[in-house]
TrEMBL record:
This is S9 family peptidase. Residues 1-17 form the signal peptide. One of its GO terms (biological process) is proteolysis. SUPFAM superfamilies: alpha/beta-Hydrolases, Peptidase/esterase 'gauge' domain. Residues 29-423 form the Peptidase S9A N-terminal domain.
Length: 695
């Protein structure tokens, strides 16, 4: 053991010696691809990566991760297409950038599916010399032949848009094209698009998104498009949404003007221009079915008799006739333990994924003269259920059912009823026979009960010695529901670790109220919930501060930074992924201005006082019991700017702390542009966790 320690110490000394001698200024670190910042990031990588990749466990962890993420027996994420086929986007070790492909339903269900490639992104990237990342396709109903494909350079949110012919399997000569921006675009008809984009250089909101909507005709140059709506620079973004019948006929164009991340002004396009509707700003249009607009409420609507969390229906013709005075009807009112997690529509059914105490079910609603009639689909209980695709041409659904220890299954269901048919099952990626899942509840500082899931060995000794990884997010009404933990299972659970997922406030596990409880001035409730779960794990002697590690990304990366600076004594390992960190300046970095609705505005004195109390960068101090942290980001992340992670590492270094830092030069907000980069990231993370919690 002593010789291993000497070797590892030598690795540390060599790595420390290669640390860059000069740290750029904060301003330089905010230059996303500035020469000084890139040189610094590369030097940091050179200093940190050997300390992980020289670990004897790294190679095996990398091989296992790569095997899982590139496995060819994964369940394809298929969706219904208007030509009667199924389509998906697929990546594996042979197709790193991926294939957009198609298959008949009959062939898909056979023992030997025969796929047909629509677009080979690897070949396109090689031909054009650009690391293209496929960002999805918006296809024109009803046949879905013509599609607007988004391609981003290296995984950025910014993308180019090109028209593609799915029958000819090529880009359309002289077809629609939009230059790199963050566009919102939809089809009105074969020769008309409704587009919000950066029409001229710098014509974006303070958050970096478009706010001018125009109608673009086929063959027109961009500067000839006709403007139909203009928002304001202070808005977050403006997006057009086309409502259409199953036969493809466009019935209305809605314009969503995001005042902040959660408050949206809803307008409807008429011959005389865009007309504001009387819908509450804290409401979200979810679907259009049988002539009805479906929306969820994220606030009370006392004038109409509705409350936050309600699912509502509006007659489209009536809304068009009198936009200022909408007359909704109730579809569903969740109980306090429930939340509407997902809404979709088939040809004439409304389909809802409803969760109760973070366990899923699917309801199908049929419209009638006197209201909606609900039917619960017969699916596995105590699972997470995701609506992967809903056919607009009939009532078929593709559903994904998953749990922490149960390999995911894919089901074909009919929204009108009947017994669902299992399409595919994921082979087990790890031995789950020795593990068990439990749901516990912790009591937060203000008395609120907070649920969390524990995945642990059945024979776990409650002596506080179990290496435990706690994951959470806590923001933007995003729910952390149970999901098959393939890489966690293989890289952590099989090696004796415990995995925990916390359903803290800020998320959507109990609907809008759970999210609203942690906004702005109440932000510390989110972090208090996380600390309560951490302490409950220790109190139950599942683990101890010596064996407890935490992980979170983006908003969850902010959570990790708060945990590091507020309660470092609770944790031995902290994985900080693509984080927010400098909350005093976040509104002017990247897309930060768009999140004022979540965190508050540092320019507001009352809100600034709260933000100053938890902003990780400003709360880093010398002489604290910080564990060695691992920070990772991506140069191409144009959503949460890499400056947050860079400044975190620079400040830790200036204060004399040990830390690890990895900046992927591509990858966008996912911190990986392809599956090889994903496997690398996973191996680095679990090597670090092994060193901190298992050694």
């Amino acid at each position: 053991m002593r010789s291993i320690a000497i070797i590892l110490a030598g690795v540390f000394l060599m790595a420390a010696a290669s640390q860059p001698s000069r740290t750029p200024s904060d301003a330089a670190l905010e230059e996303i691809e500035g020469a000084e910042a890139i040189a610094w990031a590369k030097a940091e990588n050179a200093a940190s990566l050997p300390r992980l990749q020289s670990d004897p466990r790294y190679a095996a962890l990398h091989d296992e991760a790569l095997k899982i993420v590139t496995a060819k027996d994964r369940i394809p994420n298929v969706a219904f297409a208007g030509d009667g086929a199924l389509r998906d986007f697929w990546q594996d070790q042979d197709h790193v950038q991926g294939l957009w492909r198609t298959i008949s339903p009959e062939s898909y269900r056979s023992a030997a599916p025969e796929w047909r490639t629509l677009l080979d992104v690897d070949a396109l990237a090689k031909a054009e010399g650009v690391t293209w990342v496929f960002g999805g396709a918006t296809c024109l109903a009803p046949d879905d032949r013509y599609c607007l494909i988004r391609l981003s350079n290296g995984g950025k949110d910014a993308a180019v848009v090109r028209e593609f012919d799915a029958v000819e399997r090529r880009f359309v000569d002289g077809g629609f094209q939009l230059p790199e921006a963050k566009p919102n675009v939809d089809w009105v008809d074969r020769d008309t698009l409704v587009v919000a984009t950066e029409w001229s250089k710098g014509e974006v909101t303070e958050s970096g998104y478009p706010y001018v909507v125009k109608l673009l005709k086929r063959g027109e140059p961009l500067d000839a498009a006709r403007e139909v709506y203009r928002g304001q620079v202070k808005d977050v973004a403006v997006s057009p949404v086309v409502l259409r019948d199953p036969d493809g006929t466009a019935r209305a164009v809605l314009i969503e003007r995001a005042l902040d991340f959660f408050n949206t002004e809803h307008l409807i396009l008429t011959d005389g221009g865009a007309v504001k509707t009387g819908l509450p700003t804290r409401s979200t249009v979810q679907a259009y079915v049988a002539g009805r607009v479906i929306l969820t409420l994220e606030q009370d609507w006392p004038e109409a008799g509705f409350q936050e969390g309600d699912l509502l229906s509006l007659d489209l013709v009536a809304l068009q006739a009198d936009p200022a005075h909408p007359k909704p009807s109730l579809v569903l009112r969740p109980t306090p333990s429930q939340s509407v997690e997902q809404v979709a529509s088939t040809r004439d059914r409304l389909v809802v994924a409803l969760y109760d105490n973070v366990k899923g079910q699917v309801l199908s609603f049929a419209p009638g003269e006197t209201g909606w009639t609900a039917t619960r689909l017969d699916l596995p209980k105590d699972s997470s259920i995701h609506i992967a695709s809903a056919s607009e041409h009939d009532n078929r659904l593709i559903l994904s059912v998953t749990g922490f220890l149960s390999p995911s299954t894919q089901w074909l269901a009919d929204a009108t009823g009947g017994e669902p048919v299992k399409l595919k099952s994921l082979p087990a990626r790890f031995d789950a026979s020795k593990d068990v899942v439990e749901q516990h509840w912790a009591t937060s500082k203000d008395g609120t009960k907070v649920p969390y899931f524990v995945v642990r060995p059945k024979d776990l000794k409650l002596d506080g010695q179990a290496p435990t990884l706690l994951y959470a997010y806590g923001g933007f009404q995003v729910s952390m529901t149970p999901a098959y933990a393939a890489t966690v299972g293989k890289l952590w659970l099989e090696r004796g670790g415990v995995y925990v997922v916390a359903n803290i406030r800020g998320g959507g596990e109990f609907g809008p109220r759970w999210h609203n409880a942690g906004l702005k001035l109440n932000r510390m409730r989110v972090y208090d919930d996380f600390f309560a779960v951490s302490q409950d794990l220790i109190h139950r002697e599942i683990t101890s501060p010596r064996r407890l590690g935490i992980m979170g990304g983006s908003n969850g990366g902010l959570l990790m930074g708060v945990a590091l600076t507020k309660r470092p004594e609770l944790y031995r390992a902290v994985v900080i992924q693509v984080p927010l960190f400098d909350m005093i300046n976040y509104t002017r970095i990247g897309a930060g201005a768009s999140w004022v609705g979540e965190y508050g505005d540092p320019a507001n004195p009352e809100e600034r006082r709260v933000i100053e109390g938890y902003s990780p960068l400003q709360n880093l101090k010398a002489g604290q019991p910080y564990p060695r942290v691992y920070i990772e980001t991506s140069t191409k992340d144009d959503r949460v700017h890499p400056a947050h992670a860079r400044k975190a590492a620079a400040r830790l270094k200036a204060l004399g702390y040990d830390y690890l830092y990895y900046e992927n030069m591509e990858g966008g907000h996912a911190a990986a542009a392809n599956l090889n980069e994903t496997a690398l990231r996973l191996a680095l993370e679990y090597t670090y966790l092994s060193q901190q919690l298992m050694d």
